[in-house]
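Query form — protein Aryl-alcohol dehydrogenase-like predicted oxidoreductase

QUESTION: What is the three-dimensional structure of this chain?
INPUT:
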Amino acid sequence: MTDNLSDAPHQVTLGGSDLAVSTLSLGGNVFGWTADRAESFAVLDAYAAGGGNFVDTADVYSSWVPGNTGGESETIIGDWLRSRANRADIVVATKVGAHPEASGLSAVTIKSATEDSLRRLGVDHIDLLYTHRDDTGTPVEEFVPALDQLVREGKVRAVAASNISAERLTEALEFSAREGLAAYVAVQPHYNLVSRGTYEGPLAEVVAAHGLSAVPYYALASGFLTGKYRPGGAAVESARAIGAARYLEDPRGPKVLDALDQVAAEHGVAQATVALAWLAAQPTVAAPIASARTVEQLPPLLAASRLRLRPAELALLDAASA
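ANSWER: The structure tokens for Aryl-alcohol dehydrogenase-like predicted oxidoreductase are given below.
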């Protein structure tokens, strides 16, 4: 067994921005959902203590929980930032455009939703603002200038896009360049070892051609890539169990688990660590997103920032997931 763990600092710069972020982004979707305030604070504390500085949330988190209205995650993160007095140390990313009461990318919606996020976070600026999903009914000529205005006002440092096609991304980038407006510096795609086609191909090619960074979500496939879900295995108690278990029906699922087991055993690390390290090694990927409901779930995630997979190991995982 060899550890192949690097001790070097692990930060990267997102696209053409000045945002230096850790190579694991902490997903805040569980805050106010499966993690209460105290549990969320503990996870955030442990993440920061482990060298992480890139926290991802959205205005819609966690509106799906009965009694919630959305913004609960932002509120918890904002409370944590104030209580720890560490705002300058944390790169805060949030998203607008998918909240049930602030849906779409009209200029009015972008402005009002961003103001609401600033209020819930209790900050004077958002480091990275994503358009959460594309709104094909709104032209780039409307939403790109709205994002640019937020940057010019100092309310947002950089902008990015989640859930966008290669065509619309290209259109937005070309318009930004033509008009001299703030341009997307990153994308947040659905991408992991058992969902490669959701990013690889045209979208990844546009990202590479324009020097953007990718910050993938569902990096662990709803927990499937942690190795907890096995053919014929015991049921797992998790809010994401149904989503994760479906990968067992995909012929690639068991193959990927076998490859993860092999590489994880070689390095003496968890399967989740290897899955995230594979993702981080892919072209254009800057920082996979993974969430932790408890402090105990965090160490394997943080370890991915230190693991460097060998070419043969990357090839093994590539073949299993093809």
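ADDITIONAL NOTE: The mean pLDDT is 94.
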